[in-house]
Amino acid sequence: MNRATGARGPMVVVAPDEYGGTLTATAAAAAIIDGWSSVRPHDRFDVLPQSDGGPGFVAVLAAAGAVAVRTALVSGPMGDPVAAEYGIAVDGTVYVEAAQACGLAILGRRPSPETALAATTAGVGELLQIVIADGAERIVVGLGGSATTDGGRGALNVFGGPADAADRFRRIDLVVASDVDNPLLGRQGAAQMFGRQKGADSATVESLQARLTAWADDLARTGRDVRDWPGAGAAGGLGAALLAVGGRRRPGTDVVADATDRRRRLAEADLVITGEGRFDAQTAHGKVVAALAADVGNAPLLVLAGQVSGHVRIAGVAGVWSVVEHVGSLDRAMNDPGPSLASLAARVAGEWVMRGSV
After folding, report:
1. How far apart are CA 188 and CA 184, in angstroms?
2. Which residue(s) pair with 177 in the sheet?
3. What SS3 class is residue 57?
4. To which H or E segment does residue 342 belong?
5. Distance linking the first and last C-alpha atoms of the chain
6. Helix locations, 261-329, DSSP H
7. DSSP letters of 147-213?
8. For residues 251 and 209, what is the distance between their CA atoms, to the nearest angstrom?
9. Residue 109 neighbours by CB distance under 10 Å
10. Which of 166, 197, 207, 305 is at 20 to 30 A from 281, Cα to Cα?
């Protein structure tokens, strides 16, 4: 989708990720354009919302016209029914977003040790079962933003267990679009690395780790011992389950790049603006900003992040700004995210004009 506000102005590609549950990637792009165009009304915009496979994966593909959206009623992370969206491309590829069925954003309550232990990926299995029954031969599952650390047990149990699931997926091209490369177990694994953000305390992390260790042995009986594979720890170990039953991993940012023709569109840009909820050390590892920096070519890449933590350097990034610093407080940025981001975009547009860079 293109939006032109001037026939001869520079081409600005606006390609943000979602902002930690406060703004979808599409809403963030709209806010950036509103703010930027208030200062530079003659610039042209190519609107290119992005995702790394986590929350917003299907919406981003739909915004680019890459998929038609369908909805199915499945189990949410705590077992309550949720309406989960998935996408179907012209070539028949089905795009499933795990967070639609087991995401932290649809938990329905504050994360706690109890929810960390109980949250299930069963809804993801139900969604996969539905699209397979409809004839899907190629399925791309975007991982990220989950409330779960069940290792994908809930998803595979929908099919009868790991062996039955492996048999069901034998004739399906299953792509695991993972936003992280963490293994299933250990200090960098699903429980120890991500359990606390899902409500787990120290004792719960230990319980989750023990449960995942036993589950890894069950998965190995499929003939694929995936516990140390990159991406196995994604989405609370759902990555391990999908890899064990025949999946192959691709970075979620690459999947979105192909589906949205991102590389060609970036090549035509005079300036690229992106953003995410938190710009920190994790940004360089499989996140949207790093992927854009690798693809951007000669155009400057500006990052408008919700928060900026640490001194992170990524080749290709020309500047980084924080919404929280701009508006003065985290509460204000969280409570009024769209206008806060638009205000920052207007400020940066003015600063960039003064530099004479575009």
Report:
1. 8
2. 142, 250
3. helix
4. helix 337-355
5. 22
6. 262-267, 288-295, 323-327
7. S--STTHHHHHTTTSHHHHHHHTTTSEEEEEES----SSSTTSHHHHHSGGGT--HHHHHHHHHHHH
8. 25
9. 10
10. 207
Encoding tokens for residue 183?
């293994």
Q: Extract the tokens encoding 29.
A: 């792009």
Q: What is the distance between the alpha carbons of residues 170 and 152, in angstroms, rounded to a whole number?
A: 18
**Residues sharing a CB contact under 8 Å with residue 356, sequence separation 6 or more, in sequence order:** none
DSSP string, 106-158: GS-S---HHHHHH---HHHHHHHHHHHHTT-SEEEEE--SBS--STTHHHHHT
Query: Locate tokens 């509460």: which residue?
Result: 331
148-206 confidence digits (pLDDT tens): 999 999 999 999 999 999 999 999 999 999 878 899 999 999 999 999 999 999 999 99
Tokens of 234: 């994604």
For tokens 């299953």, the residue is 174
Residue corresponding to tokens 């949207």? 288
- The whole-number pLDDT of residue 32 equals 98
User: How far is it, in rounded angstroms, from Cα 54 to Cα 358?
Assistant: 32
Q: What 3-state class would DSSP assign to 19?
A: strand
Cα–Cα dist 233/189, whole Å: 5
Secondary structure class of 266 (helix, strand, coil): helix
Instruction: Name the token pair of 198.
Output: 């899902």
Q: Which amino acid is at 178?
A: S
- Can you tell me which residue has the tokens 């290119």? 48
Q: Which residues contact 319 (CB under 8 A, 6 or more apart)?
A: 300, 302, 303, 348
Q: Are the C-beta atoms of 86 and 131 separated by less than 8 Å?
A: yes
pTM above 0.85, yes or no: yes
Query: Does the CA dihedral 296-302-306-311 come out positive or negative?
Result: positive
